[in-house]
């Protein structure tokens, strides 16, 4: 059931990232002079270098839109905060099986502006400068930061879900970004948490 719901939101985001055409790359009908059989006299121009996706600041809401089946959906996702070394009765080192691990909490919010979709904690990860990524903890303790972001919840138009997602992370180094990568989104969206 988790996979089906995660894919549902992914379809919406896939549609959002796949719609529209950049006028500079759209194919155009050849001009009359371009239909001659003469060989080109100059070498082709180099392909433009793609612009990297921005890394958002904490609090910035990234908007998305698309379709799920025949339903139009739109919404937004945001990282609202990050806390390192969250105290708990449970040990992050025990969960991870690695000494020196601590708990961290990522405060996030996902909203539906139009349509119905399922939001889950699974697309969120913490990323590190060396390329490592850490998924949310599969463990929960009563003293983890509240409110907790639910494992999954259905959002309808005008509704939001906000809460903390807890991770077992190394005490050092600290993560550089929080990434949101639901199924179907080609490029994860990232928020800079390096200074929090």
TrEMBL record:
<protein>
    <recommendedName>
        <fullName>DUF4352 domain-containing protein</fullName>
    </recommendedName>
</protein>
<feature type="signal peptide">
    <location>
        <begin position="1"/>
        <end position="20"/>
    </location>
</feature>
<feature type="compositionally biased region" description="Pro residues">
    <location>
        <begin position="43"/>
        <end position="53"/>
    </location>
</feature>
<feature type="compositionally biased region" description="Low complexity">
    <location>
        <begin position="24"/>
        <end position="42"/>
    </location>
</feature>
<feature type="region of interest" description="Disordered">
    <location>
        <begin position="24"/>
        <end position="54"/>
    </location>
</feature>
<keyword id="KW-0732">Signal</keyword>
């Amino acid at each position: 059931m988790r996979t089906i719901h995660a894919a549902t939101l992914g379809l919406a985001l896939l549609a959002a990232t796949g719609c529209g055409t950049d006028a500079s790359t759209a194919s155009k009908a050849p001009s009359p002079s371009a239909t001659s059989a003469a060989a080109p006299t100059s070498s082709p121009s180099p392909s433009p270098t793609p612009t990297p996706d921005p890394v958002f600041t904490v609090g910035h809401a990234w908007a998305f839109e698309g379709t799920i089946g025949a339903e139009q959906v739109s919404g937004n996702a945001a990282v609202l905060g990050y806390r390192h070394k969250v105290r708990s009765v449970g040990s992050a080192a025990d969960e991870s099986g690695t000494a020196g691990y601590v708990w961290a909490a990522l405060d996030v919010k996902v909203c539906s502006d139009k349509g119905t979709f399922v939001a889950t904690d699974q697309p969120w990860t913490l990323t590190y400068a060396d390329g490592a990524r850490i998924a949310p903890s599969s463990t929960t303790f009563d003293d983890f930061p509240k409110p907790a972001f639910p494992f999954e919840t259905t959002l309808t138009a005008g509704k939001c879900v906000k809460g903390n997602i807890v991770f077992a992370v190394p005490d050092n180094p600290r993560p550089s970004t929080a990434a949101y990568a639901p199924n179907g989104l080609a490029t994860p969206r990232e928020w800079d948490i390096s200074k929090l």
